């Protein structure tokens, strides 16, 4: 839960005061209220079994991991209390669980390639949630997924998800929606055996204002990240920007889905480096003859030898599934990509059968370096109460990293999916 010492900081007091003042005076979505004396309890149980293999010129890895979550959500009127724990075991552990040295840990295995799914057991979420007619406030250890998770996300692809010790307020006033979070700790995906990188403390503010008009939706955001730990200071940053999306009818039921985003990131807090770099993202997509098509461009710029970084993002969603660019290279990154996908209806033996294929061309944002290219593919379907997924990534290195091939086979089961 939130440590009292951090709530005395000026930034903490200001953020919490703003959330309290935004309470009943906002105008968010209404929610049906339970009776004042009625408590409902909902169990939360899910499991995920995954085999992952990594093949590189020098290193390789194989991991069979099982992640199990269990918890409950108790609701009384407009209040709810959610508690959830998770544990991961690795029957096959021929892999390095950490991208950094952890002296004394038997999960730090530098003779193997990285698979960031350490064995772990922890309290994943412990949060108090209050929903009023026009908004909501959540206090405690919680998942936070903002927009497409490019800047802040729960890293749901990994077995141990990322959470935050935070206060979050959401409200709506007419066509305007506001979202404000103040966090004091980033609970990383590396778990309890990662030493000081188990949780990274600091002052973190995530703020956003969004609105919708017809087929157009836009948002302005600010992310202020001020780390306490010395190993993380270089990632302290302030990022201001926004995005616009539109779903433009082009005949029949077809729509052209457009998205454009821009942000400016610079040093902040105790970051010892001086830089200011731009972020751009453009994407267009549509559905044609049962296929979903998309093409886009993303640039994480560079200035003074420092590139745009997104240390709190769900990074696996971006720049290829091989995860070669979790840390942006000093010269920045240009990612040109195309993708095609299809859901196959009417296959009784494989409900929800879907397939996806994507190609990425990676270059530096400055300096004209050809980093390499990557192919990604996946097939998924339902088998009774289980979700089955097969994924593949093949990165062909040129001026960055090494040739990397990854394969995943995954089986998921859920009794009650998390509500938030």
Layout: helices, strands, pairs:
Blueprint lengths: L3 H4 L2 H12 L17 E17 L4 E17 L2 E16 L25 E13 L2 E8 L20 E11 L2 E12 L11 E15 L2 E12 L9 E15 L2 E14 L8 E13 L2 E10 L1 E2 L2 E2 L25 E11 L10 E10 L6 E14 L2 E12 L6 E11 L6
Antiparallel strand pairs: 1-2, 1-20, 2-3, 3-4, 4-5, 5-6, 6-7, 7-8, 8-9, 9-10, 10-11, 11-12, 12-13, 13-16, 14-15, 16-17, 17-18, 18-19, 19-20
Oligomer class:
single chain
Shape: globular
Main sheet makeup: 18 strands, antiparallel, barrel
Helix and strand sequence = HHEEEEEEEEEEEEEEEEEEEE
Percent of residues in helices comes to under 10%
Extended strand count: 20
Give the number of domains: 1
Kindly describe this structure.
The chain has helices spanning 4-7, 10-21, and strands at 39-55, 60-76, 79-94, 120-132, 135-142, 163-173, 176-187, 199-213, 216-227, 237-251, 254-267, 276-288, 291-300, 302-303, 306-307, 333-343, 354-363, 370-383, 386-397, 404-414. The chain has an 18-stranded antiparallel barrel. It has a two-stranded antiparallel sheet with strand order 14-15. The model is unreliable at 1-34 (pLDDT under 50). It has a single domain (4-38, 50-61, 73-80, 124-414), classed as Porin, CATH 2.40.160.10. With 420 residues, the protein is mostly beta strands. The radius of gyration is 22 Å and the shape is globular.
Summarize the structure.
By secondary structure, the chain is mainly beta. The protein is built from two helices and 20 strands.
Main traits of this protein?
420 residues; mainly beta; Porin; 18-stranded antiparallel beta barrel; two-stranded antiparallel sheet; 2 helices; 4% helix; 56% strand; globular; disordered N terminus
């Amino acid at each position: 839960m939130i440590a009292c010492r951090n709530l005395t900081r000026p930034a903490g007091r200001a953020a919490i005061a703003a959330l309290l003042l935004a309470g009943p005076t906002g105008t968010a979505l209404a929610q049906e209220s339970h009776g004042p004396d009625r408590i409902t309890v909902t169990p939360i149980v899910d499991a995920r079994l995954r085999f992952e293999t990594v093949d590189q010129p020098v290193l390789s890895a194989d991991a069979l991991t099982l992640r199990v979550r269990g918890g409950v959500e108790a609701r009384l009127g407009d209040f709810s209390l959610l508690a959830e724990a998770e544990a991961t075991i690795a029957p096959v552990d021929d892999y390095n669980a950490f991208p950094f040295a952890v002296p004394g840990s038997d999960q730090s295995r530098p003779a193997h390639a990285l698979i960031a799914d350490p064995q772990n057991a922890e309290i994943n979420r412990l949060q108090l949630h209050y929903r009023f007619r026009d908004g909501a406030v959540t206090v405690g250890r919680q998942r936070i997924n903002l927009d497409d998770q490019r800047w802040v996300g729960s890293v749901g692809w990994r077995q141990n998800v990322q959470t935050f010790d935070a206060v979050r307020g959401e409200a709506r006033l007419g066509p305007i929606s506001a979202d404000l979070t103040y966090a004091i700790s980033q609970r990383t995906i590396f778990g309890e055996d990662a030493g000081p990188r188990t949780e990274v403390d600091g002052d973190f503010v995530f703020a956003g204002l969004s609105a919708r008009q017809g087929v157009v939706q836009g948002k302005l955001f600010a992310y202020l990240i001020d780390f306490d730990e010395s190993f993380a200071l270089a990632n302290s940053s302030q990022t201001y920007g926004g995005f616009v999306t539109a779903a433009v009818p082009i005949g029949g039921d077809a729509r052209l889905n457009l998205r454009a985003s821009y942000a400016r990131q610079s040093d902040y807090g105790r970051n010892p480096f001086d830089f200011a770099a731009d972020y751009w993202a453009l994407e267009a997509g549509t559905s044609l003859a049962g296929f979903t098509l998309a093409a886009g461009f993303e640039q994480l710029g560079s200035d003074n030898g420092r590139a745009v970084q997104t240390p709190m993002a769900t990074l696996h969603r971006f720049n290829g599934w091989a995860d070669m660019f979790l840390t942006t290279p000093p010269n920045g990154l240009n990612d040109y990509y195309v993708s095609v996908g299809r859901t196959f209806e009417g296959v009784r033996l494989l409900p929800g059968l879907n397939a996806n294929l994507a190609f990425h061309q990676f270059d530096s944002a400055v300096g004209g370096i050809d980093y390499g290219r990557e192919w990604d593919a996946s097939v998924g379907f339902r088998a009774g109460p289980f979700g089955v997924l097969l994924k593949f990534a093949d990165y062909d290195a040129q001026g960055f990293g090494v040739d990397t091939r990854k394969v995943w086979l995954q089986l998921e089961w859920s009794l009650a999916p998390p509500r938030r």
